[in-house]
Amino acid sequence: MTLAVKSARKGRTAARRVSGAAVxxxxxxxxxxxxxxxxxxxxxxDADETEVEISVTSDALTRFANNTIHQNVAEQSLSxxxxxxxxxxxxxxxxxxxxxxxxxRVAAASAALARSQPPSPDLLPMPGAQKxxxxxxxxxxxxxxxxADRARAVARVAKMAGKNKQTAAGIxxxxxxxxxxxxTKGLFASHRQTRAEFSITILEPDSSGWAKANxxxxxxxxxxxxxxxxxxKASASRQPREAAPGAWTVILEPxxxxxxVGFLFYDFAGTAVExxxxxxxNRMGKRIMGENILLHDDVYHPLQSGAxxxxxxxxxxxxxxxEKGVPRNLVYARATAKKMKAKPTGHGMPLPNxxxxxxxxxxxxxxxxxxDEMVRSTERGVLVTRLWYIREVDPYEKVLTxxxxxxxxxxxxxxxxxxxxNFRFNQGILEMLSNVExxxxxVRSAGEESFEMVVPPMKVRNFHFSEVTKF
Amino acid sequence: MQDxxxxxxxxxxxxGASYADARVMDIRHRDLSTKNGQVGTLAxxxxxxxxxxxxxQGSWGFASTDRLTRVGIAACAAEAVAIAKASALAKLxxxxxxxxxxxxxxxxxxxxxxxxxxPLERQLEMLLTADREMSRVKGVTLTETSMAFRRIEQLFASxxxxxxxxxxxxxxxxxxxxxxxxxEIQKRSYPNSFGGQHQLAGYELVESLDLVGNAPRVxxxxxxLHSAEQSPEGAKTIILDSSQLGLQIxxxxxxxxxxxxVLGMEANFAGMSFLTLEKLGQLRYASDIxxxxxxxxxxxxxxxxxxxxxxxxxxxxxxxxxxxxxxxGYLSNRETAASxxxxxxxxTMRTESWNRLPIIRxxxxxxxxxxxxxxxxxxxxxxxxxxxTNRSWSIDDRRYHFQFSTEIGWEIKGGKKxxxxxxxxxxxxxxxxxxxxxxxxxxxxxxxxxxxxxGKGQPMQTMGTGHGxxxxxxxxxxxGAAFAKA
Lengths: 471, 486
Prior knowledge:
The structure holds two protein chains of two kinds. Chain A is of the alpha+beta class. Chain A has helices at residues 3-19, 31-44, 100-115, 140-143, 147-163, 223-236, 254-261, 270-274, 334-339, 371-376, 429-432; strands spanning 49-65, 68-86, 89-95, 167-183, 188-204, 207-215, 246-252, 295-297, 319-323, 326-327, 362-364, 380-394, 399-412, 415-419, 423-428, 436-439, 443-445, 453-455, 458-468.
């Protein structure tokens, strides 16, 4: 760690001791501090090329169950990851010890790893300085949220649940992260963002409901509204009856859509196609989904989050992935692009890795149908709040299995008729995206199986429920 | 490490904590992988920090930091106390815990060869040779190999006076061959899927696996699966190999017995459990021949759930979970044990790293060996499907309904292993399935598998768990639903 960084931290630590509880904003570093750490490593490295990645995390999470807080945690960390290159060989070593000796050791460890292997024919020289699009995803009020702020919100929703004779469980988390990459070719990129997330499950003796929201800024999170929604689902799904498995019309709320279509993300990697493990092998340019499916990867979308550069420091580009149900483009890291005679798109993962790249900012274009309209237009169907434990059964047909959870409803004659027991599904995702009858407005959605994306609710015909469980 | 912990405990006390414990952890990773004959990942990392857990005003607080100066640790401990006081804003009752003895001890797992002292060139050479052996098989479209090593040195200290130093060394390796042809992707893994086999052991584990010797067979089977018959649908007798049975134990026994789930603490994410409290000592979980234990002791073997003490200073122990088919025990910690009236914790609190709160985790959840020779089990079976090596797994959030598929199946006809079957799968309800078990192979066929990637908690923690299992037979199981055509 440089003296300047130590000094800056000491100041912040002193400020923190006054209040007792740290807030995330106190732990972020300036670009000058980040550059000084990188330059220190450059001086300690004798490699042909050296790259430094610096990650700073300051997160806090308040967890509640049975209408009380039962876990309440905070973490602060800083890690420095060094990639060296010698004669076409590269490797990475990482430490969270930032004194001068440790930085010297991590540079030497990276060098020893790199020298231990045969040269890689695919390794490219590191890129030089780049220009990046601007994204603003750091919000001071979120960075300065306190444990008491979160606890007060939790106390409110726990009280609501208790008043309704319901039981609440969930999380409220706030924090900030920072990521910087620099190399000896003159590249420097840094990004900081905040994050707020509230998730709640409301339980009744034989039913449950769930709601979750995630955003860079705390202002977009309304714990009371989410608790109310989850509570209403729990009430409305009491005494669930058992329905027969089979092909059903389903109305998938955004979180359910997210956790299904999220399984497609790596299939759009050039490397996945090159390795012949993508469901788009031999299918690029062919209509394999419905004409109403339009999908981009777009880090600059206002509902998205993340850094505008990739693991090598290349600027992320907006990429059209699916147009009118036809997969049009893949994403490429630099080395993949060279191998596949394409242009890099700024989606590479930190090197070295065997995965290449992936789109991390998927944006599905939605429609204008509301959930109510979807229900009203359905003679017999199932409304799904959330899915659970989704796993891939068939990687080429992209068949996934999983369960419904926390709010599964029978729709009859255009109305919600009550709760039903949870189903297991075995469903091909490409087939599902060929059977979308209605789309709602796309929203930033948070689930549990996939990272956050912008997805719409969907009404889908012939969704395959294979079995039913006992609750 | 001792100084860091002392500073934390002292600050917590001064700030008003009625209880505090601190974990200083120094974690080292080495990861190597190859793909299609080239080095993929080659990385090492180290991470040192402290996690401080306190009770203040009757509520929990936890904070962690990697700023290991006296000022940094004091600030972190003060933060933990401030967080606990914030927790008390939404408190219904004070935290209570079962008592634990004071321990001052050191513990480390035995191993023969330090994996971090084996030259990288030698480790890479083994992986590249195995990769090459798989690539030689015509039809293979993707070859992957990997090794992973971990060393976790930790010092636990608590305000009741315990000071426990532990060092765990973990090794693992595996290979995978994939074949894409027509409209199918088939793959075979060895010795297990999703990273191979992992144990609390040294490099001798990797050498014992014979990755290179098994590479041609693995690749040939991946290719051959394309011409194999589709595994049938219906109700069948199935035999699970020991690795698949290990995962079946993990999902349908290991998770539902976690007492934090049972008590609703995981309801928002990992889910709850069908094993409600009145079922303890009453439920026929399985057939009479089934005995399952949660055993963290070294006597049980070098599993990923083996340790000297858990992460709240409770000694490793063996808890009978299923005894002759009867449900007899939960996985507990000091707090949940107290809440259901147990006299002591089951010692299952574990944390992924210094920056995570310890939570109830599986230790080694193992089925005890039966009496059958594997050859006799096959010979005794008229009509069944033998399923090997997990391919996908899923279970509902109360752990009733599951579905698994495996990489490969074999038809058993008239007591003999017959043709290969592709895409085998089975599904069922947990207690119905375990009550259909009528044969378990003996100690000779029993393996203590490592599952290095078990996720739980918010924020998510990944933990290694151990599962001892031998091949076993189950009657009248639903098969084929995963691949059924609508």
